[in-house]
Amino acid sequence: MRHKILLSAAAASFALVCGAGPALAQSQTGTVLVNGTVANRCLFVTGDVVLDLGELALLSGDTAALGRLDASKVTSRTATLNGWCNGVSASMAVEALPILNTSFTDAAPSGFDRRIDYTATATAQPTGGAVSASDSTLASGGGTASTTGIFSSDITVSFATPATPTGGRLIAGSYAGSVVVTLSPVT
User: Which of 22, 36, 43, 158 could serve as a FRET partner for 119 with CA atoms 20 to 30 Å apart?
Assistant: First the structure.
């Protein structure tokens, strides 16, 4: 009799295990959460360009103007950089540095100049429309930054209002200056 009771208990246990089987075989899920970050940044794709203005002095026309700054050599030229910023608060600023005679570094004699001043403007093309920032060589330091936000485009640098300090004739030699365009991600 004892064997029958054990067998009945074993059969009952087997029935419970088999009956519970489908409940244990139900699908279960686990989740892998994926995250990361992208920092605010700006980058120049084309960040350095050489702009050769050629002969800067007038060579023909009114004899009183000969040897003085040919303003059209500066205002008729542009340079193209290319860059991008990925943050909504990104900005662009310009600092224009005068075009100086690097061969003749003494003070210019009366009637002559060794410095060319101008205003430089950089223009980017964000989706919302053109954004510009400017600076003049007549004021020290850079100009006021303009918010560009997220953009990826050419940045056209143009020149305006070139002049020499006294309107004198330019001293012979090599001249060099620069326009620094700064893209800032603003954190």
Answer: 43
| Structure tokens given for 113 | 């100049």
Report the pLDDT value the prediction gives residue 5, as an integer from 0 to 100. 46
| Residue 77 confidence class, pLDDT cut points 50, 70, 90 | very high
Residue 70: count of CB within 10 angstroms of its CB: 21
Assess contact for 94 and 140: CB atoms under 8 A: no
Q: What is the pLDDT of residues 101-137, one digit of tens each?
A: 999 999 999 999 999 999 999 999 999 999 999 999 9
Please, are residues 56 and 68 in contact by the beta-carbon 8 Å criterion? no
Q: 93 pairs with which residues across the strands?
A: 182
Half-sphere exposure of 160 (CA within 13 A, CB side): 9
Q: Which residues contact 169 (CB under 8 A, 6 or more apart)?
A: 57, 66, 67, 68, 111, 112, 113
Element (H, E) at 10: helix 2-24
* Strand intervals (E) in the chain: 42-46, 78-85, 91-101, 112-113, 115-124, 131-136, 146-147, 151-163, 169-170, 175-184
